[in-house]
Amino acid sequence: MTRRPDTAIRLWEGQIAASLVGRLRAHGHPFALADPAALSRPGAILSLPASGALPPGTGERALLALIGELAGLLARRRAFAAGAGRPAAPRGERALRVGLTGGIGTGKSTVARLLAEHGAGVVDADAIAREVLAPGGEGLAEAAAAFGGGILAADGSLDRAALAGRVFGDSAARARLDAITLPRIAELAAYRLESVPAGGVAVYDVPLLAESGIADLFDCVIVVEAPLEARLARLALRGMDEADALRRIAAQADDAERRRLADIVLPNDRGEQDLIDAVARLWEDRVRPALS
């Protein structure tokens, strides 16, 4: 088994921690990330205010909630590793948490839209990533401090092409950017997913679920797949040339890596109506039974 580099391990831990912070804060527990920008270095990553600064019992309740979340994460990991599938969400206590992923051009976003039409609450990781680096936010300020003012446009917004040029092919720069953005994305996404009412379905539309190692945060992982030719054709319709499309596909996890994490694999190798019908069957056969 290949061991992850220490920096990657800490970034993975940071995303798990940030997700737990988001969930717990959504329920009023006052956790925080100790230092989001330092998650690629050793050190504490979760914090609570000093006990004297909290109302009586608040710290104890927060710690019990954290223990419950960690126990659920470990139970899902162990059950899935044993081939038993991830345990279902506690009925009526919270929403069913679904991780939806797939490579670029597979039609994952279309599946997210279809799930929303069936009543799911959908949180889009790409939209949150843009929000995290929006003007006036801490994320963009830290990115500019790390990479220089050259990544900013004249109006103070992020020049995405300039930032991409700074990190492309530079693993150390990529790690610095990930340490700034990924925990913030994870925390905000988790917070918003918790806004879906108990008994509902909360879907996290996230392209890099396999790469980030966060599958065990979810009760169910859906992987959307499509043949390479279909993916290239869809990306061409977006104006992406084949060389760029192949480079982006190669930079992501492959189908086998994503499939290893999947509870459900959803092929998207036919027409739009076939996909609509497949999502409807998935909702009726797999999602509804998990809620009742």
UniProtKB/TrEMBL annotation:
HAMAP family linked? Dephospho_CoA_kinase
Q: In which pathway does it act?
A: Cofactor biosynthesis; coenzyme A biosynthesis; CoA from (R)-pantothenate: step 5/5
Q: Which GO BP terms apply?
A: coenzyme A biosynthetic process
Q: Where does the protein end up?
A: Cytoplasm
Species annotation: Actinomyces timonensis
Could you say which EC number(s) this protein's record lists? 2.7.1.24
Q: Which UniProt keywords apply?
A: ATP-binding, Coenzyme A biosynthesis, Cytoplasm, Kinase, Nucleotide-binding, Transferase
Catalyses: 3'-dephospho-CoA + ATP = ADP + CoA + H(+)
Q: Name one GO cellular component term.
A: cytoplasm
Q: Which family does it belong to?
A: Belongs to the CoaE family.
Q: Which amino acid positions bind ATP, per UniProt?
A: 105-110
The protein, known as: Dephospho-CoA kinase
GO MF terms held by the record: ATP binding; dephospho-CoA kinase activity
Gene behind this protein: coaE
Tell me where it mainly resides.
Answer: cytoplasm
- State what this protein does: Catalyzes the phosphorylation of the 3'-hydroxyl group of dephosphocoenzyme A to form coenzyme A.
